[in-house]
Amino acid sequence: MTDKDRDDMMLDALFAEARADTAAEPSPDFLAKVLGDAEAFQPTAPEVAPLPERSGFWRSVLAVLGGWPSVSGLAMAATAGVWIGVVGSTSLIEDGIGASLLSAGQDSFLSDLDTSYAFVVE
Amino acid sequence: MPYDTQADIPDDALLVLYANGDQSAARSLTLRLTPRVFSHAFRMLGDRAEAEDVAQEALIRLWKIAPEWRQGEAKVTTWLYRVVANLCTDRLRKGRGVGLDTIAEPEDDAKGPAQVMQDRARLDALQAALNTLPERQRQAVVLRHIEGLGNPEIAGILEISVEAVESLTARGKRMLAKALAGQKEALGYSDDG
């Protein structure tokens, strides 16, 4: 065995002892200190601030009506009413029945709209 | 490691979890990295109190850089060992003495006092011999033979080639053997063996 082999064996044994040396292990107190740092420096998710409560006349009207779903229903009904009014009036006036309804002193019958309403007199 | 419940998660993924506010990642990283960082600093400085200062400082730097860490780009331990090596170098260059007296006595009831003293004497002798090495040689020897890292990783930490690492560790071992030559018998190693 050469001197170098003996030196290598000695150093390998010393390195193995050093690896198992408890003096090179951190103490529990030190681990706790490091964990404290880790928690102190840890980024936190930004908190979302609640939207400020707004007030006003239209907001209170909206609340009384039941919120946006109710208002949208009302808007739909109003739009449908206007559409029926416009389309219905022009078509009725055009075919003469509307004109007869609008003018006084003239009787109007359902049979004017559809002959199936008329009683057939034998 | 028994307390590391996220043992299967790589360091860099844990660091991303940490940056996202995951508290268990903070605990896992602390338990996983502190022993390595402290051990290396202790072997470089030979002093528990100084090793704690260096390890704490290195880990604080890691906690601070966590939000900017790009996963898969660098190895967390390589980065950390490099920071520790630089911090140790700074301290050693400030000319501080090595306080071998401050090395804690081991608490080992299984061995008799004489054996404990002999073991301690060997480890103290190794530490004293390590302290005689130039910083880079000491870093390379400690990382290779005590921390058990591979040469490519050591090359990354010291930012030198693998061949340079091999050269440093070989020269370091020769110098260690020379420093310990006069103490072989006292340490329980005989030239006859």
TrEMBL record, chain A:
It comes from the Bacteria. This is Dihydroorotate dehydrogenase. It comes from Shimia abyssi. The lineage of its organism: Bacteria, Pseudomonadati, Pseudomonadota, Alphaproteobacteria, Rhodobacterales.
Automatic annotation (TrEMBL), chain B:
Pfam families: Sigma70_r2, Sigma70_r4_2. Keywords: DNA-binding, Sigma factor, Transcription, Transcription regulation. GO terms for biological process: DNA-templated transcription initiation. GO terms for molecular function: DNA binding; sigma factor activity. InterPro entries: RNA_pol_sigma-70-like, RNA_pol_sigma-70_dom, RNA_pol_sigma70_r2, RNA_pol_sigma70_r4_t2, RNA_pol_sigma_r2, RNA_pol_sigma_r3/r4-like, WH-like_DNA-bd_sf. It comes from the Bacteria. Residues 32-96 form the RNA polymerase sigma-70 region domain. Residues 124-176 form the RNA polymerase sigma factor 70 region 4 type domain. NCBIfam families: PRK05602.1, PRK12524.1, sigma70-ECF. Belongs to the sigma-70 factor family. ECF subfamily. This is RNA polymerase ECF family sigma subunit. It comes from Shimia abyssi. The lineage of its organism: Bacteria, Pseudomonadati, Pseudomonadota, Alphaproteobacteria, Rhodobacterales.
